[in-house]
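Problem statement: downstream parser choked on a complex file, so we are re-checking the raw output for the zinc ion run. The parser issue turned out to be on our end (a line-ending mismatch), but while we're here, posting the original submission so the record is complete.
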Amino acid sequence: MRVPTRREFLRAGGALGAAAVALGPDSLFGDVPDITRGARPSSVPGLEVLHPRGRVPLSFIIDDSTCLVNMGHFCMPQFAEVWPEREDYKKPWRTWPREIPDDFVREFGEWCSGHGVRGKYSVVPNPACVGWLDRELPGWSRSELQASLKLVRELMLPSWDIHPEMITHTRLIDLKTGRPVAEVSPLTMENWYPQGDASVDELASYIAYALRILRNCDLPCEGITTPGGFGGGAEASLSRAVGEAVRDVFGAEIPHYFKYVAEGDESTHPRVEHVRGLGSNDPRLVVNVPAGAGDWFGGWEGDEPSRGHLYADAEAKSGRMVELIERGAPAIMYCHWPGLYTHGTKDGFRDLQKVVPALAGRFGDQTIWMKLSEIARYQAAKELTAVTREEGAVALEAPFACPDFTVRLPTRSPAPPSIRHDGHTVPLKEARARRDLSSGTWLRESEGATVCFDLRKGRTVLTVRGVWSSRAITSSRKAYRHSWL
Ligand SMILES: [Zn+2]
């Protein structure tokens, strides 16, 4: 839930004064304090890592989804309790549907899968304290709950990362008792917790608790979403805590999280944080994946008019997604699940059904839909694969495997490049155009040779004739500056 954004709060003059600004529930990407990046390996000038298959990554982040419970209806009275003066928490939540039915999940999931949409779908484990998804959900039968979880596993999991959005998205849970803490204040709400430094251990325990409930539901996770401003004031600790908790509960190789929204000209590239143990057989890192467009499909409560054109208009000539794609930057839109359902009118979903085909119509062969975990993996491989120059070749030492890894090398030779890994040569076919690039192909362009392949963990040697001629390197340097990192 990201209402209002910190920037909007500041613009509004911070109704509660300067101290309240720190309690704004959102974090913008440009405001992220320095989080340790950690080590980086060697690179060589002239070699450029492009987007996968040379296409701009697209993704769709959905917050505040869970099984059956309409978070708009159930969260609002708990938010109003701690912010009694806030007008936006005085809406008529009693009149709103308490349920977002599985029929809607099915309709949405099937449509998205038919259109190739991929992204992140939250499943709040103890939504607004209503019940526990791995036990009972009061208001629904056990079989309804189990059918709802089965639907998420079978329909959503293939195309969507599942994230907990902490435990309740409302009240802080006492991990010793499993009950909401007694005191009611912003500091005992997940959205505003902790507003000061908290230890990595404390945050990791909390996140792991949420993850374990989803593990009990057979929902594997490689990342988490922070509810609103969770982790505010403890950003660096939060990042490390995500890494520890996700590795601990699910053994994920590349943990990631969603917390920030990049606006204006802020970079939408993921940040690879807390890199340690590079070169060992157990490298550690966390990837911070920001959204870049939203929240315009009906708001977190589901009662706002949907404004899908702000992502892309009917011809994909304007809109934030269009702007990002034209910039060549990852274009990740986000919204809230109650907004898509829009109290049953489905106005938000109908707008999505205009935005996605519009983007496909104009940019279909220049973009690629990805889950957040796939975007995180690509960025990790891009930044952490060591590159060294060898005679007529490039050696890559990859800490992680990565599908569709795409590099451009400075050469003017028409000879096909070759790839060797573990004693095996990977055959490459020449692609006729950029849109035909896929794993196992290469493309001759004026800037050099672009090669797309499934990067395997360990050492790979790319042999490319004429690769290090000085003329070739100079001509590729300009492009290199724009797209490396
Ligand atoms: Zn949320």
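For whoever reads this later: Residues 1-25, 472-485 have pLDDT under 50 and may be disordered.
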